[in-house]
Amino acid sequence: MQTYLDFEKPLAEIEQRIIELRALAHESEDGTEQGISKDIKSLEDKAKNTLTELYESLTPWQRTQVSRHPDRPHFQHYVGQLMEEFTSLAGDRKFGEDLAIMGGLARFRNMPVVVMGHEKGTDTQSRIDHNFGMANPEGYRKAVRLMEIAERFSLPVLTFVDTAGAYPGIGAEERGQAEAIARATDACLGLGVPNISVIVGEGGSGGAVAIATANKVLMLENSIYTVASPEASASILWRDASRAKDAANNMKITAQDLKAFGIIDEIIEEPTGGAHRNPMEMVIRTGNAIEDALREFEGLSPKEVRAARAAKYLAMTRVLGS
């Protein structure tokens, strides 16, 4: 069953009418089926045009809603469709396993890689199991462990980012959340192998940066990447989380804004109506973009890979600080 966002209500009404007419045509035995079919075709054309119009001019808040759509492809979808021989590695060798960040060894289009990413889950139980994609310190320490394996065996690192932020619970703070995030970010910066990161949904705060400080940062067209969620920002700025829409519309969190600022390197176009309306097509487009990004680093030495990454972020700080 299709889940509609608030701004998609005009489309929902049209598509519901199409469903009703199809049911009526199926039950019809009096020759009215042909007329109903014409009505259905007319409504289908109207639905297609409405969908295109809605997604041609999304506001930042609407893009935020799209980035959180429950049917948007998640880490496990990308791994399942793009990776072969995926072997999951669990645990941080210090405390335990964290299912909010998953990762392991795989082959991406016949290339051995280390792949990791946030997983939010797809139903109530799996969302609880994966803590809605909000990682604890052990998740980020597992990410560091995976990056160390990649460095040891000269394997490119691919990361898929989709989190509202690192988990802010008391236990996470007691186990060193900030330190774990900092070490993961440092590990990203120090890699002598190429690392490519894709913001596939939400890129929230340090919880995202910890595995997204990459040679190339790609971002789906309707994803967001932000220092804090719109709700958190509204609470900080106005002490009113209900003003999340105002925060989103003013924070420059969309792929289009961040590309203009040089924060990300490439925008991956989504199918009309968002990634959730055609997940398979979105996965294929993302795979093609990752392959193109990796090709840019063919033949580079570890020193050159580190230098390219350092130059990218040093240039970014100069632009933002000017």
Into which percentage range does the β-strand content fall? 15-25%
Looking at CATH, the homologous superfamily of the largest domain is 2-enoyl-CoA Hydratase, Chain A, domain 1
The CATH architecture term of the largest domain is: Alpha-Beta Complex
Largest beta-sheet characterization: 8 strands, mixed
Overall spatial form:
globular
Structural class: alpha/beta
Topology order in helix (H) and strand (E) letters? HHHHEEEHHEHHEHEEHHHEHH
State the end-to-end distance: 49 Å
Radius of gyration computed on alpha carbons: 22 Å
| Proportion of helical residues | 40-55%
Write a structural description.
The protein is of the alpha/beta class and 322 residues long. It has two domains: 6-57; 64-321, 2-enoyl-CoA Hydratase, Chain A, domain 1 (Alpha-Beta Complex). The chain has helices at 9-27, 33-56, 60-67, 75-82, 124-129, 137-152, 170-174, 177-190, 205-212, 230-238, 244-250, 255-261, 279-295, 302-321; strands at residues 83-88, 101-108, 111-118, 157-163, 195-204, 216-220, 224-226, 266-268. Strands 1, 2, 3, 4, 5, 6, 7 and 8 form an eight-stranded mixed sheet that branches. Helix 9 links the parallel strand 5 (195-204) and strand 6. The longest helix is centred in the first third of the chain and has 24 residues, at 33-56. The protein is globular.
